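Subject: sequence -> C-alpha cells, single chain

Hey, anyone have a minute? Need the predicted structure for the following. Not urgent.
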Amino acid sequence: MKTRTKLWLVPAVIYAAFTLWYTDFGGPLSEAEIQANVDALRSNGAPEERIASMTRFMREDTGRQLLMINALDLNPDPPDVPGAEPGETGEQLMARYMAHMLPALLRRACHPVLVGDAAFSAIDVVGIDNAEQWQSGAVVRYRSRRTLMDIVIDPTFKGPHHFKIASLTKTIAFPIEPQLNLGDPRLLLALLLVAITALLDAFLLKPARGIED
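Reply:
Had a minute. Here:
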C-alpha cells in the first residue's frame, strides 16, 4: 500500500468510527420500542399525562438528532433536599444533578452544545406570563429520541432529578430538529482531519511524489 494511501486511510477510519458512534442509524422508534418505553415510564411512576405526552413524542420520531433548548431560572433560596448539605445554593444543587447527568449524556454521544448566563432580561415576550427573567440558558444535543428516552426511563435518574427540581424557580425546555448546525462535531472533525492530513501530505510526502504518483 502506498504511503499516501496509508496517510489518508487513517483519518478516514477515525472519522468513520466517530460517525458510527455519534449517529443513530436505527431510524424512527419501532412500536415495540415505544411500548417498552411506555411500560418503563409507568413502572417508574410517571403520571399518565406525562406518559401520553412522551408517547406522542416517540410516535412522531424521525430518527434524527435533537437539540434541547433550555431556559433556566435558578432558585435563590432553594429548600433543603435529601442527599445535599443544608443551605446549598441553586447552583450547587444543579451541579449535583449534572454530576449524574453529564456522564450519562457523554456515554450516549450526547453533550452540551452551548451554555451561558443571561446577558439581560427577555427582549421579546408574547403570550407567556412570568417569562421576562431567566438566569441562564443551555442547548444540549441528543443523538436521537431513542437515546433521549434511554435517559428518561433510566431509574438511576429518579433520585438525582430532585436536585434539579429544587434548584430551579422555573424552567422551560423543548426539542428542535436542527436544519442547519454549523457546529456539528461531524462537520468540524471532517474539516480538521482533512486540513491536518492535507498538510502532512504536502510537507512530509512532497519529496516522494515523483516516485510514488
